[in-house]
Design brief:
The structure is a homotetramer of 388-residue chains. With 388 residues, chain A is α+β, with helices and mostly antiparallel strands. Chain A has two domains: 145 residues, Four Helix Bundle (Hemerythrin (Met), subunit A) (Up-down Bundle), CATH 1.20.120; 206 residues, paralog of FGE (formylglycine-generating enzyme) (Alpha-Beta Complex). Chain A has nine helices and eleven strands. In chain A, the strands form four sheets. A four-stranded mixed beta sheet of chain A has the order 10-9-8-11. In chain A, strands 5-6-7 form a three-stranded antiparallel beta sheet, with no helix packed on it. In chain A, a hairpin with a 2-residue loop joins β5 and β6. In chain A, α2 runs parallel beside α4. Chain A is globular. Chains A and B meet through loops of A and loops of B.
Chain lengths: 388, 388, 388, 388
Amino acid sequence: MQAKTIPSITPERFLEIRSKTEQICSSLEPEDVALQPADFVSPPKWHLAHTTWFFEQFVLSEFDENYKVFNPDYAYYFNSYYNTVGDRVLRAERGLMTRPTLKSVLDYRAYVNAHMASFIQKGLASDLEDIIEIGLQHEQQHQELLIYDIKYIFGNQPTFPTLHHTVPLTAEPQTQDFIPVEEGLYTIGHQNEGFCFDNELGQHKVFLHAYNISNRLVTNAEYIEFIEAGGYEDFNLWHAEGWDYIQNEKIKAPLYWHKVNGAWMQYTLGGFTAVDGHLPVVHVSLYEAFAYAQWKGCRLPTEFEWEVASSQFNYGQLWEWTNSAYLPYPHYKKVPGALGEYNGKFMVNQMVLRGASVATAKNHSRATYRNFFQAHLRWQFSGIRLTK
Amino acid sequence: MQAKTIPSITPERFLEIRSKTEQICSSLEPEDVALQPADFVSPPKWHLAHTTWFFEQFVLSEFDENYKVFNPDYAYYFNSYYNTVGDRVLRAERGLMTRPTLKSVLDYRAYVNAHMASFIQKGLASDLEDIIEIGLQHEQQHQELLIYDIKYIFGNQPTFPTLHHTVPLTAEPQTQDFIPVEEGLYTIGHQNEGFCFDNELGQHKVFLHAYNISNRLVTNAEYIEFIEAGGYEDFNLWHAEGWDYIQNEKIKAPLYWHKVNGAWMQYTLGGFTAVDGHLPVVHVSLYEAFAYAQWKGCRLPTEFEWEVASSQFNYGQLWEWTNSAYLPYPHYKKVPGALGEYNGKFMVNQMVLRGASVATAKNHSRATYRNFFQAHLRWQFSGIRLTK
Amino acid sequence: MQAKTIPSITPERFLEIRSKTEQICSSLEPEDVALQPADFVSPPKWHLAHTTWFFEQFVLSEFDENYKVFNPDYAYYFNSYYNTVGDRVLRAERGLMTRPTLKSVLDYRAYVNAHMASFIQKGLASDLEDIIEIGLQHEQQHQELLIYDIKYIFGNQPTFPTLHHTVPLTAEPQTQDFIPVEEGLYTIGHQNEGFCFDNELGQHKVFLHAYNISNRLVTNAEYIEFIEAGGYEDFNLWHAEGWDYIQNEKIKAPLYWHKVNGAWMQYTLGGFTAVDGHLPVVHVSLYEAFAYAQWKGCRLPTEFEWEVASSQFNYGQLWEWTNSAYLPYPHYKKVPGALGEYNGKFMVNQMVLRGASVATAKNHSRATYRNFFQAHLRWQFSGIRLTK
Amino acid sequence: MQAKTIPSITPERFLEIRSKTEQICSSLEPEDVALQPADFVSPPKWHLAHTTWFFEQFVLSEFDENYKVFNPDYAYYFNSYYNTVGDRVLRAERGLMTRPTLKSVLDYRAYVNAHMASFIQKGLASDLEDIIEIGLQHEQQHQELLIYDIKYIFGNQPTFPTLHHTVPLTAEPQTQDFIPVEEGLYTIGHQNEGFCFDNELGQHKVFLHAYNISNRLVTNAEYIEFIEAGGYEDFNLWHAEGWDYIQNEKIKAPLYWHKVNGAWMQYTLGGFTAVDGHLPVVHVSLYEAFAYAQWKGCRLPTEFEWEVASSQFNYGQLWEWTNSAYLPYPHYKKVPGALGEYNGKFMVNQMVLRGASVATAKNHSRATYRNFFQAHLRWQFSGIRLTK
């Protein structure tokens, strides 16, 4: 990751971003925070601690000579990159750790926040600003994952608990237009103003053939048509791999949807509610997005088509599946060190999503932002924009 | 289950037994109670609620006409026998339910306790006494399982939390004698005084050939000898199935043991501590008990040999593996109804353990008590007594 | 295993028993002999070679000083007991070996047969007679397994091939009587005349309470009644473990049964044919046998009840599930050496079957014979006799 | 698929291509042809029959009114695209079918060949030429898969059989040069002369930034350096997913390699032999190719870089992993009907390989040919070309 930090790092900005994480979690009970119901989910407590560990490890322990580590074991418990063989008797598995308690983790956050605020107050060298900026961006990424994971934890138990921090969708204009884009040579990637991640760099030229892209996302009403037309039963619409996946998992609708007495209902963080046909469809996999597009005689945009056209439509409610695999840009360079191996190692068997979502932290995304998930995942806030 | 209830059911006895469950859990944090780290483990919260549901379902809802159910959904959440297809959108899975909270479950316990105390106070018909007695015995079984499950939850995370309610072992006399028992026709099974479970009934005669049985359990020091003599590497000592199991699971020592700097350490509810050679070895599977006995040129007793000789040695610290499969006694009868199908359906591929353990509720066991677990399980408090 | 060999070992008897194995396989194609469609199945070629290896390894290589091993690699390919870590680059997995060819294996059989015949002709010491007798009994066990395995290979492919060597069942008298047996002390186990396996030894006394046992096996017609009465859908009839098993495996009828246009059909070695209601039901698991007996208000006999009553009914068409776990007799002793560890290591989580089947070699079984399989297995020729 | 058929379809060309398939299989034994040792492998017999079924189904049954189907069940047994629910009692699973025999399948081939030759002789409409051309290309694809699958079947059994049809590699010039390619707009895709598959169509422009590509493949000697430098133990070199894969599968070297007495040996279709350092390394996954390139400070080419530079180096011994995911070209169109859904449905989670291999049928590949496999697969003849 590289950062040209605008705005700069101040104690106020630092604490404001950090406090957002606690706000998301403010209505959680201690019972909610230690569970990992699926491989791709982390317990909320882990997010709270792991983001804190980042600042302790890469800033305070290294650059603040008076800093005393809050608890030396936490680095071991909450470090996602820990890949060498440990000398400890037990491996820390995220989903098995009931301790430390939520309270201890919140104390840890407060402790590190206080030290960071003092440390920032004293003034920062430019490379330290970069590291802290990365830490804040990292915090915001985990804020979004927190929302995904809490929704998954709540949405897969029969009590359907609600979260104070709801992230409602709003209806887009229902009229659909296809915006034409002309063929030509376009510039792709981040232009080095403001922060970006390493995977957006390597600005380069891409030649695009002419295409048309929808001004809005696919709606629930449209998606229900697809379901009712037998979309989930027609293997011709699906990737072979996607077809096997929905058969094995018995998938017949987006995640969190349930048919109750003939009506489509869904779990949201605000509660169990009827599916609103005017809202964009959310929680679909790449497989489902692809099949839907096939059924409509359209296709998904590539990430380049999306980026080039993005100034011509509104986006930001849902991450939008593209038909681009997550691969390095031509001039992509791995930054050395632990911070550096951040993105490159995921560049196989993942698909790019562009945009942002109602769960994304404010100012965290941009038109060049490359999000990525495996094709079968659905717990992220993902939607569909058609191209042809 | 059948019950000739001595002592009788009083509000005091009812509340005393019930309160023991809360005592076991008193030092748990809310974070600890919702986790299910293995199939054979239930979350502590589930035990707390499920035992309560028993009294609500089989006593109050059926016989107390003024009783108002605490929460109608709880029957669905906390009913282990629920086997028909539900009409609910989501299956209640024990390990996924963060809600209801621990506090709600404790409120549920208090509510049901209060109603039960009043109900008992009014006087009980004899068959109701039987049902409540079964409920209390059921409560005590779950008290023991709670201790197993808490130990498993705590013993499989790197923080190794401790529990206020420790259940320490004490050393037996170290001298080993083999008590001789003559061949003859013996009576086996419960004699119908005091409570017993259905699987103890069907008193019957068994002819035993002469045998000798140890006056004490195998110690940690003896078991370490077995380990160091390569017992876990010599497939001739093991059942074929046991050998495959320890290979697949990479088992080299009892559960909760760790070799740290050349010394054997173990997790106990009181903390991480050195293995004491004088104490009986605990947390071994039937496979390990069998292999140890083979290595010593001995064997495990049958459950009949154990029962006949049990008056001649002390027992009660650990459940003792027998080489008897868990099968019905000759006159075993299934009691009709939901309470009746309690034990018979488990009578395949399980092995009998006899005795009791430091985790067993007071007065809950007896010489005829037939405990049973699958041969590979180790999280119960199980030990080894030799026979030859 | 111990053997008091009657009749004695002659070249004629040796070759006659051995040739039976080739007869069973005589209508197989080379394509049929290398496949292993399930863990519990061995390829026919493996049986042909493995039984031969026994005589080469334990007789010729050890006692015939002029013998030259047919192929030194065969010991490695066809030795089921091979449990130490090999120095070869690849593990021999039965189901992956297309080579050596069937022809090579038949050559191997002829070569070893010729040497064995000459060797026997020269006269044998008594302990050598014992080893060869065990080899012949071992050969007969594999003859039966061959029939199971060929049926499984043929019965699980859409072409449903037939085998020249069919093993048809015949109808028993359809009238059912329950033979009463009085309570008393009975002697169980082999009396040391004629050959027996180690698990039959340790003759001992068993006290039996009075019981009644059916004069015939359960028929297909009776079993169809159970199916049509919803036996496979009523979890109260099943072991908990059995219920899970039939749910997971979607089992609704005995193995090889198919409902075609409303009629029950089954694959037999003679072809795909209608189920004949008068014949005994075959290819059921212990779970199914138990559930059927529950449904009839009966139970399965113990192996002791079966053995004591066996002189009073006809048996031999199907192995009969008992409700006894496979465990050692009181005086059971492990015979030292490779031949010795034959049976004891399987004595956990298996159930005993008594009798013999149409697939059993002539003179291979007897009233004390203890066959055993895991409770879920169905590819063996197993049936049901009721007790009450 | 679309085809401008040059050369045209004649009985001679048809029979010549078809006979190549039998030639590859000519030294197989019947025992070799029915086995499926892994999901991605098909039994040789299946390849022989399936390619024949293509001509029966899409040509003879549809266009030759006198044609009588060889065996009506074969369509069911040998049709890989069969995706609707069948009415047959048993699903045809490729790896379980010992019947029909090899001889029957060869008779099937001869029968269809004779009818096809007569049919072609009578003259063909242009669209029929296209279909037959696709059938022949399909035959050639299966010829290559046959070689992969036979090698896998032979290379995973301890006997290491050899195949008459060996496909030896030859050493390239050992000097390594990096060929520079200038940035610019290039045309990618097939130009519609001669046959191509649908995935090569949609000719389009791609802008490439400047790069340098190796004149030769990575050699065994170079790859051994990587192994000995600890390449398989340094997780920094690997995709996260690749790292997990090699840990789980315990992969430490290319497929078919074995270290024997300190020297690297490998199974080839010609036998078990020492690894020759001068030859190109083969049987590596995309993960291994990527890690090797990382270790060398290089990268893999994209499929576009490969295609543009391909006229400047020799290729054809091994398929070359590119760092391009297998995705549709801009103007990619699904051809309607069963033949049409050929390629598009695999366009997710696969990586493109370019070139051809020693196992590829003559004239079957070209510079625009897009082969594809999942990133973890290694049984195909895949090698590594570096770019920087």
